[in-house]
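#lab-general

N.A. 3:47 PM
ok so I finally got the sequence cleaned up, no stray characters, all 74 residues accounted for. can someone with queue access submit it? mine expired

B.Y. 3:52 PM
send it over

N.A. 3:53 PM
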Amino acid sequence: MLGTILQLCGVFFTLLGIFTVIHWFKTPKMPADDSNRINNIKSWWIGLTRPEVMAKSWKAFRQDEMDNIEDVGK
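B.Y. 4:20 PM
back already:
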């Protein structure tokens, strides 16, 4: 039973990793050029390791999620 749960969790995180890598190397839409792939990876890493930087950049990262939903409704 525990082995099955661990396998399902492992499959989930493996698929999440594959999904992330696919989006890193997917051709960006205009007006972005191919060098923006590097910026996508950098922004992912900054968001993962330094959330305070993201909070300074976007108001949505400083607010509670319910506040963000209410802002969209206004």
